[in-house]
TrEMBL record:
Keywords: Metal-binding, Zinc. It comes from Castanea mollissima (Chinese chestnut). GO terms for cellular component: cytosol. Residues 9-111 form the Alcohol dehydrogenase-like C-terminal domain. Its cofactor is Zn(2+). GO terms for biological process: formaldehyde catabolic process. The lineage of its organism: Eukaryota, Viridiplantae, Streptophyta, Embryophyta, Tracheophyta. This is Alcohol dehydrogenase-like C-terminal domain-containing protein.
Length: 158
């Protein structure tokens, strides 16, 4: 894909199982968690926060279903902000768990994942939206910050 080309995330998301998309800019006066609770008739069973902002971690938690909703924190809080959650919500059955690198055990899991990729059992190529030379590394960061890429491969020998 060309460096300036915009990546359409919906078709790729659908391919990997995403069923619904919510743009916070189109939620009006409602919070994202309110929209998700309406869309799912009470909240999602599993919520994942991958960005690294305490405010989004809180929204993910509030989007989970009372009684059994689980929120998984994947993002590392970028600004050192504290996560504020009402303890009463835990008593109502919601839970939060964190994971670093998806909980893999590098020594055993990375070779296994590499083998699955090489044996075409694990599809990763669809996540690569751009391939750029090392001289274009700043362009890769720009594309990422503008939301125009999924993953960029930086070729060191170009």
């Amino acid at each position: 894909m060309a460096a300036g080309e915009v990546v359409s995330r919906k078709p790729l998301g659908k391919k990997f199982g995403v069923t619904d998309f919510i743009n916070p800019k189109t939620c009006g006066e409602k919070s994202v968690s309110e929209v998700i609770k309406e869309l799912t008739d009470g909240g999602a069973d599993y919520c994942f926060e991958c960005i690294g902002l305490a405010s989004l971690m809180q929204e993910a938690f509030l989007s989970s279903r009372k009684g059994w909703g689980k929120t998984v924190i994947l993002g590392v809080e970028m600004h050192g902000s504290q996560l504020s959650l009402n303890p009463y919500e835990f008593l109502r059955g919601r839970s939060v768990i964190g994971t670093l690198f998806g909980g893999i055990k590098p020594k055993s899991d990375i070779p296994l994942l590499a083998k699955k990729y090489l044996d075409n059992e694990l599809s990763l190529d669809e996540f690569i939206s751009h391939e750029l030379s090392f001289q274009e590394i700043n362009k890769a960061f720009e594309l990422h910050q503008e939301g125009k890429s999924l993953r960029c491969i930086i070729w060191m020998d170009c």
